[in-house]
Every structure is written in structure tokens, then in C-alpha cells.
From TrEMBL:
GO terms for cellular component: plasma membrane. It is found in: Cell membrane. The gene is urtC. It comes from Candidatus Proximibacter danicus. The chain crosses the membrane at residues 12-35, 47-67, 74-100, 136-159, 166-184, 214-234, 261-282, 302-326, 338-355. GO terms for molecular function: branched-chain amino acid transmembrane transporter activity. InterPro entries: ABC_transp_permease, ABC_transptr_urea_perm_UrtC, LivM-like. PANTHER family: HIGH-AFFINITY BRANCHED-CHAIN AMINO ACID TRANSPORT SYSTEM PERMEASE, SLR1201 PROTEIN. It is a multi-pass membrane protein. Keywords: Cell membrane, Membrane, Transmembrane, Transmembrane helix. This is Urea ABC transporter permease subunit UrtC. Pfam families: BPD_transp_2. The lineage of its organism: Bacteria, Pseudomonadati, Pseudomonadota, Betaproteobacteria, Candidatus Proximibacter. Signal peptide: none annotated.
Length: 375
């Protein structure tokens, strides 16, 4: 007798425990209700007021948390360490940045239909790849498609050649470094080393208006929650179990009839798409995108977020992204010359003493407490 296929909704609900749903509901209630009220209704001199700076900072970190979850899908669950994920994040940011630059219109310094940097460089018309960039839906499609195509093409040749381990990490770092050098060039049509900035509007609304910033903040919170739900469903599905098996013993997976190429390529492309979406949400909140987002150092930092929080846990990378970036915000203001030393020390300590990250430490403490209670 044929077994009936479980409906998608039931499988999604069963993959997430009631505790997870409660935690997500609390998070969304704070992000969508409490934060806007504390920002708009509470006087700025009150201790309960949430400033515009705090909203921008937390919104930026939530974008980073999405990237960390995307990294965890390929590193924590698939055993593929990428040191080039900053490329996909930046590609999504540049795609949406093109739309934001077109929205400036005649409000730019040169009052031209072309972006200011093109006028300054004596461009006469938009390059062909800018066509349609004034259309929000077209750009939203590019945010997904461009990182997906780049990831698919690169991943296909890399995985087909069975490049893995440190060699894969090195070529991903070389890829993002080459892209950074390309985007630094003025003739590529992406603003050179200055990138895109001085945004004015999004969908006709002022990008600096408090209401617009709160909407972007809320959308980022929803996107992060959706990413966690999707990642949880994916990793608990048959597809996710095969990925974990590939991570632990790829040769055995091949022996029982699975082709690891397509599984690794699928999760690699999905991870790139999530990074692209995060980059698109990041740009209007921060107000700038330039080639420095593709620097190898940024991609290495993404791996550090996952390692600090705990790879293979989903919530760990989110915690790691918040802990590291909040510490970075404090250190770069109070002790700017020591930030990189702190980051390096943090990574060493986590690698040697907390191999499972902060989440693993919490789990270990709970197990010890339970063992002591049983005695």
C-alpha cells in the first residue's frame, strides 16, 4: 500500500517545536510592536526611548544574522566552509542599490537622470545591465537571481571537480577578492571605491523618515524569522538529513546511491540567495554599499560569527552575529586600535575552549546541572 505524502504545512509545523514558535512570536512582538512604540511614542530623553541609531544598528545586525544562518546551512550542516560569502551579500546589496540610485532622480548633485558618479565620470547613458533598475519588482528579482547564478556556476564546477576542505575555502576567498577588485574599477559602472550612497527614496518614501526606517526594521525582523523557520524545516527534512550524511561520510552516501553534487550545489545556491536578500535589506538601512563588503576579511568574520555562536544549531549563528557585532560597535568606539586583536583572541578562545560555541556551552551547563540534580 502506498503511503500518502505528508502535506507541506504539517511537515513545517512538526519541524518546529511549540517552544520555537513561542520564541519567534516574542521576537516578532518586540520587533514589530514594542520597538516602534518605544521609538515613536517615548520622548528622546526617556531611558526607555529606542533611538534611530539603535534601530539602524540592530537592523544591520539582523541582516548579518541572516548571513550567519546561511553560512551555518553550508558549514554546520553540510561541512562546506566558505570564505567568500561576503560576495553574495554584496551582490544582493548592489542589485538593490541600483534601484535606490535610480530613485534619487534629479535630486542628485548634478540634477541628471544618471547617477552622480556616472555624470562625474562623463558617462552618456546607462550601461545595459542597469536597464530596468528603476523597477522595484525587477530589482527584487535580481537580488535573488544574480547571487543564485553566480553561486550555481561556481559551485557546479567546484563540486563537480570534488574540491573540498581547505582548497574550497581558498578558492571561495579568491573569488570574492577578484570580485572586489573588479568592483573597485570605475569603468564597471558600480561607483568604484565609493560604491553607492546618498540614497533619497524607496518606493517614493523618504529613506531617512522614521516610519520608513521602522518598516525596514520590521521587514528585516520578518525576514530573519522566516529564514530561521525555513532553515529549521530544511535541516529536519530528508534533504537536510542527506546533507548531514554528506558532511559526516560523503563516500558512504555515494555508495548507497546518492549523488552529493546536486545536494551540495542546491544548499550552496540556497545559502547564496539568503545572503543576497540580507544584502538587499542591509543597504537601505545603512545607506551605503561599496566593494569593501566583498573583502576577504568580511567573509572570514562571517565564519567567526557562526563559530562563536555554535555551528550546526541555527540559533547559534544568530547569537554569534549579535555578540560579535555588538562587541565590535563598542570596541571600535572605545578602543578602535584593539578591535582586530580582540576578534582574533575571541576566535582562538572559542576554537580551543568552546568548540561548540556559546550554544554548546549552554547545553553543557544544562547537562551538568541535570546530572547533579539526578544525584
Amino acid at each position: 500500500m502506498n503511503r500518502q505524502r505528508t502535506p507541506y504545512t504539517i511537515r513545517l509545523l512538526s519541524a518546529i517545536t511549540p517552544g520555537h514558535w513561542i520564541a519567534l512570536s516574542i521576537f516578532l512582538a518586540i520587533a514589530l510592536i514594542a520597538v516602534p512604540m518605544l521609538n515613536l511614542s517615548v520622548p528622546p530623553d526617556s531611558a526607555f526611548h529606542v533611538s534611530a541609531y539603535a534601530i539602524t544598528l540592530i537592523g544591520k545586525i539582523m541582516c548579518y544574522a541572516m548571513v550567519a544562518v546561511a553560512m551555518d546551512l553550508i558549514w554546520g550542516y553540510s561541512g562546506i566552509l566558505s570564505l567568500g560569502h561576503g560576495l553574495f551579500f554584496a551582490l544582493g546589496g548592489y542589485c538593490f542599490g541600483m534601484y535606490l540610485m535610480r530613485q534619487i532622480g534629479h535630486d542628485g548633485s548634478y540634477q541628471s537622470d544618471l547617477p552622480d558618479f556616472m555624470v562625474f565620470l562623463d558617462w552618456k547613458e546607462l550601461p545595459w545591465y542597469w536597464m530596468g533598475s528603476e523597477n522595484f519588482l525587477w530589482v527584487a528579482l535580481l537580488v535573488v537571481v544574480v547571487p543564485a547564478i553566480v553561486a550555481f556556476v561556481f559551485g557546479y564546477f567546484a563540486f563537480r571537480s570534488r574540491i573540498k576542505g581547505v582548497y574550497f575555502s581558498i578558492i571561495t576567498q579568491a573569488l570574492t577578492y577578484a570580485a572586489m577588485l573588479l568592483f573597485f574599477r570605475n569603468e564597471t559602472g558600480f561607483g568604484g571605491n565609493n560604491g553607492f550612497t546618498d540614497f533619497k527614496r524607496i518606493l517614493g518614501y523618504s529613506i531617512t523618515a522614521p516610519e520608513t526606517r521602522l518598516v525596514l526594521f520590521g521587514l528585516t525582523a520578518l525576514a530573519l524569522a522566516g529564514t530561521l523557520v525555513f532553515a529549521r524545516w530544511l535541516t529536519t527534512s530528508k534533504f537536510g538529513r542527506v546533507l548531514t550524511a554528506i558532511r559526516d561520510a560523503e563516500s558512504r552516501v555515494m555508495f548507497i546511491g546518492y549523488n552529493p553534487l546536486w545536494y551540495k550545489l542546491a544548499i550552496w545556491t540556497i545559502s547564496a540567495i539568503l545572503c543576497g536578500i540580507a544584502g538587499a535589506l542591509y543597504v537601505p538601512q545603512v545607506g551605503i554599499i561599496n566593494p569593501s563588503e566583498m573583502s576577504p576579511g568580511n567573509s572570514i568574520e562571517i565564519a567567526i560569527w557562526v563559530a562563536v555562536g555554535g555551528r550546526g544549531t541555527l540559533i547559534g549563528p544568530v547569537i554569534g552575529a549579535f555578540v560579535v557585532n555588538l562587541a565590535k560597535s563598542w570596541f571600535t568606539v572605545s578602543f578602535p586600535e584593539y578591535w582586530l586583536f580582540f576578534l582574533g583572541l575571541l576566535f582562538i578562545v572559542v576554537t580551543l575552549m568552546l568548540p561548540k560555541g556559546l550554544v554548546g556551552l549552554w547545553q553543557t551547563l544544562r547537562e551538568k546541572r541535570a546530572a547533579q540534580g539526578a544525584k
